[in-house]
Design a protein that fits this description.
Blueprint: E1 2-5, H1 13-27, E2 33-36, H2 48-54
């Protein structure tokens, strides 16, 4: 099970709830992995018009191992 935390606070309510859910999944026999989005060098997409206007190209870099 892949668990993604989108909150910038790694040790607060959202993270605690996700860890609780992961503990339950692990107890049921699942393998889980927690990813904190704010630890990644991730840039969202601006807009299609911005790409057209500035000639930007989309380049996706894999962040998973």
């Amino acid at each position: 099970m892949l668990v993604i935390n989108g909150s910038p606070r790694k040790d607060r309510n959202t993270a605690a709830l996700l860890k609780y859910a992961m503990d339950g999944a692990t107890a049921a026999g699942a393998v889980s992995n927690l990813i904190h989005l704010y630890e990644l060098d991730f840039k969202g997409y601006c807009s299609c018009f911005s790409t057209f206007l500035f000639g930007r190209k989309l380049t996706a870099q894999p962040w998973y191992g």
